[in-house]
Design goal:
2 helices; five-stranded antiparallel beta sheet; Translation Initiation Factor IF3; alpha+beta
């Protein structure tokens, strides 16, 4: 690959290296957001929670995490991380608002029959 195209590819990766899907409503008071970050799963997670925090605090609500997941891939030789967050926006006195019990979802489930 010539140096011109290498520079263009590097610029695109740099500019698009950190993005989020934006908050998407998936049900009543229930939302989802996805974040993408080069090299860092912590960066992707931080971006997702930062966007979610801005979203619920602008409505005077509290965030309640329903589920989250992360995955890692290699695109064009560059390590990337994706983080998905599903959450609810609840009022401070909502009975559903309690300390979340975050349990990792297994990648593989083995059944014995």
């Amino acid at each position: 690959m010539n140096s011109k195209w290498s520079g263009v590819l590097l610029l695109v990766v740099f500019v698009l290296g950190c993005t989020t899907s934006g908050v998407v409503q998936v049900g009543p008071d229930t939302y989802s957001i996805s974040a993408y970050h080069d090299y860092s799963s912590t960066g992707a997670k931080g971006m997702a929670y930062e966007k979610a925090n801005k979203f619920y605090s602008s409505r005077g609500k509290q965030l309640y995490t329903l589920s989250n997941s992360s995955r890692h891939e290699r695109i064009a030789g560059i390590q990337t991380s994706n983080y998905d967050l599903d959450f609810r926006c609840l009022s401070a006195y909502d009975p559903e608002l309690q300390r979340p019990n975050l349990v990792p979802v297994p990648d593989v489930v083995i059944e014995t029959r």
